[in-house]
Amino acid sequence: MPLARCAYFLDTTAYRISITGVVQGVGFRPFVYNLAMSMGLHGWVLNHSGGVDIEVEGQRDKLADFITALSTQAPPLATITGIRSQVVKPVHHTDFTIRHSEQQSGQYQLISPDVATCPDCRRELFDSTDRRYRYPFINCTNCGPRFTIITDMPYDRPNTTMRDFPLCETCAVEYGNPANRRFHAQPNACPICGPQIWMIETGGGDNALEHRGNDKVLARAKELLLEGQILAVKGLGGFLLACDATNDQAVTRLRERKHRPHKPFAVMVASLEDAQKLCAVSPAEAALLNSPQCPIVLLQRLPDAPVAEMIAPNMHTLGVMLPYTPLHHLLLHDVGRPLVMTSGNLSEEPIAKDNAEALDRLRGLADAFLLHNRDIHARYDDSVMQIVQFEMPKDGARLFAGAESNDAPETVFGTHSMRLTHSMRLTQSLRRARGYAPLPVVLPFSLPQVFATGPLLKNTFTLTRDTNAFVSQHIGDLESIETLDHYEEALETYQHLFHLTPQLVASDLHPDYLSTRFAREFADQWGLPAPVLVQHHHAHIASCLMDSGWTLNDGPVIGVALDGTGYGEDGAIWGGEWFVGDVRGFQRAAHLEYLPLPGGDAAIHNPWRTTAAYLHALLPPEDDPTGVFCSEEAMMVRQQVEHKINTPDTSSMGRLFDAVSALVGICNQASYEAQAAIELQQAAEMGFLSSEFHQGGMQPYPFTIDASVSPKQVKLASLFDAVLLDMEHAISRTVIAARFHLTIVDMILQLCESIRTETGLHTVALSGGVFQNVLLVQLLLPKLALHGFRVLVHRQVPCNDGGVSLGQAVIAGFAHQNDV
User: Fold this and answer.
1) Domain residues of the chain, as ranges?
2) I need a surface site. Which of 72, 448, 568, 701 has the fewest CB within 10 A?
3) Which CATH architecture has domain 197-372?
4) What's 4's DSSP letter?
5) How far apart are CA 240 and CA 262, in angstroms?
6) Mean pLDDT of each 10-residue bin along the chain, 820 residues long
7) Is 554 helix (H, G, I), strand (E, B) or coil?
8) What whole-number distance in Å separates Cα of residue 366 and Cα of residue 230?
């Protein structure tokens, strides 16, 4: 043996390296291969059910550089949660190879969400010299479907819905070439070997006309959209209903067909430049729009935005997204106009996923169906995000967990009275699905395998294993058989892909929620103990703590949970709550006073009923304007309250927003959840900008904290007296709305200060749907920081009920560990 080669063998060291995290479907094996080859190292890399294993050998100093580079130079879509290495005996490999994947019993692997079309694929899509020119399924290692097509792990083509599309010779060469960005890209395809589109025109009737061929289908889609027709378009996780966003008649027709009179639609535009023609877009919002997740982002609408008014009636915001599939890019490019892109369903049903299902369920909604033959395994809605811009007082930024600094200050509503020095932003998830799920929330401690069934509305479920909490994609409102079917399908997918066998079940405290009944049935079916019942608002605060990485050693917090509905431990409807505690237990420290909710759900859909009941309960008869305000029907509500007929008590902050919204004439009837509160916020934003507000020196409305009872109670009679007085003095509804928002901020602050005085706690955790209110958050966070509070907010899961299952799982899991 030559001396040089002998010296090489004598100096050779070998390592076995195991990597966990999101390291499959993100180009990690090709990255490892190319890294090893560039360093002259030998060995192999393979996928398995638990992650990626590497055996590598070479000179010791190069191996050290190799291990460092695994994390510092990893592909942009990879998320490494652990790297373990151990020295092994060299076997003197002569090259570096990618081995076939292995199935390992009991192991599980994190899975990448679907990823929006990357810039390289977009360039090829519109390059007339490229062989994938205008091919609707172009993708590569850096983009395309992942979670929605995976049926099993490890992530290889036979374990995806692409198994039915064998690679052609040219695609196979790309797939096997380490220098190609489609090296081991499992969804790789082209017009010769890959999925195809076609169209079925129904015109809303039974007679169908079919179109085949990529060019013909896309040309006809353009014609129909420009004619004002409605298309059902199959996407990554299901169908979207599309129409011309500039066509008032088309948008109105879509609303009528979906039975969705007011809830805003999302708009898809071709580019960031097109988004800026519709809305004010900050640099942070632009980055979010252009991110690989490509969510719907709520933006401030420009006054002259060239879209139909009925897209978002009574709103100053628009939900905007950029195309995230090649098919979307082609449609937006060809039509040349913004398109409404809304979930392919009737209101509150799950999104349609399969071709036959869409043709059946959406026949009365769409005039034509743009279909394809790549199956969708996991149903997947679009995610919705917003960025809250706010300003912090000097030294306040250090007290806020979850915010980032802005490079340049921005104007913020309601900050006129403070000396502000730090411009900050908070990115909030309002609906977590495509682009984010199924990535787990990493917990600050390990838990047993818990299945938390979630709440009734905006449902998600959570499954835990080790330090991972797998919060499902948005499921929807569990109020129909169709949604329950979607729920069970998603649960089966998560259990199978992540090898989860729950030891414990958790559910909401409400005995009649469908999610609670499902928890009991699941526990019975699998021979598990009776479900752990978790109070709704306790779960909210626990979710916020886990979302913020709050550990048990960090101690208890002041928890503020404000929302519309949550079943209380005393059988009342809670929703305006202040707690002290952490995941080990909570004590109710304060709440809004109990007031009657006439008819339960009837009051939620008709906020004027809540107003009538509150006025009757709070004011003496001579001061009660109910009869004038709501005519004869209000008299019936008064009798209902007096005789306590179907009038449960509530401490809900959401209902307080409803009552004020209806009282000042903003929203008397609600066709979607929180409509009255949302429109009150929109009015308040205008109020803060008005000269009437500033010239009048407007202050918060009065209220009373009754500390003689435990828990403390917030008394609201003086608040309503003052609102009525403003109405009598012809103060505008926008200014009243602004004063009301100041009042809620003052209320939160006063109670937190009172609780701090008693407990010595300085950390406040905020959760519940009320904290989706951008204006309220902009006003509140600087106030809390100015008064020395550290603030925890949601960062990964929604503050609304979409995050409740996370809190349920953690509370139940911790209780179980302590009982064992």
Assistant:
1) 3-98, 111-195, 197-372, 441-548+803-819, 592-793
2) 72
3) Alpha-Beta Complex (3.90)
4) H
5) 18
6) 48 90 86 93 89 93 93 89 92 90 77 96 98 98 96 91 97 92 94 98 77 97 98 97 98 96 97 98 97 98 95 96 98 98 89 96 96 97 95 64 54 35 86 97 95 97 96 95 95 96 97 96 97 98 96 96 97 98 97 95 92 92 59 80 90 98 95 96 94 85 97 98 95 96 98 98 98 97 94 97 98 84
7) helix
8) 5
Q: Does domain 592-793 have CATH number 3.90.950.10?
A: no
The phi and psi torsions of 701 (rounded to 5 degrees) equal -70, 155
According to DSSP, residue 144 is labeled B
Single pTM value for the model: 0.93
Do the beta carbons of residue 601 and residue 808 sit within 8 Å? no
- The pLDDT score that the predictor gives to residue 126 is 98
**320 near 349, Cβ under 8 Å?**
no
Strand order through the sheet with 441-447: 441-447, 462-471, 450-452, 504-508, 532-534
Alpha-carbon distance of 494 to 111, in angstroms, equals: 10
Q: What is the DSSP letter of 403?
A: -
Q: What fold does the segment set 441-548+803-819 form as a domain?
A: Nucleotidyltransferase; domain 5 (3.30.420)
Tokens of 209: 């006309």
What whole-number distance in Å separates Cα of residue 794 and Cα of residue 426? 9
**Which H helix or E strand runs over 386?**
strand 384-392
Tokens linked to 5: 């080669």
> CA 818 to CA 680: how far, in whole Å?
45
- Give the per-residue pLDDT at 693: 84
Asked if residue 702 lies in contact with residue 722, where contact means CB atoms within 8 angstroms, the answer is: yes
Question: Hey, what are 705's tokens?
Answer: 């904290």
Q: How far apart are CA 154 and CA 160, in angstroms?
A: 10
Residue 462 CB partners (closer than 8 Å, separation 6+): 450, 451, 452, 454, 469, 470, 471, 472, 805, 806, 808, 809
3-98 CATH fold? Alpha-Beta Plaits (3.30.70)
Neighbour tally for 165: CB within 10 Å: 21
Q: What is the pLDDT of residue 12?
A: 85
Separation of alpha carbons 591 and 603, rounded Å: 20
- Examine domains 441-548+803-819 and 592-793 and report if their fold is the same: yes
- CATH architecture of the region 111-195: Alpha-Beta Complex (3.90)
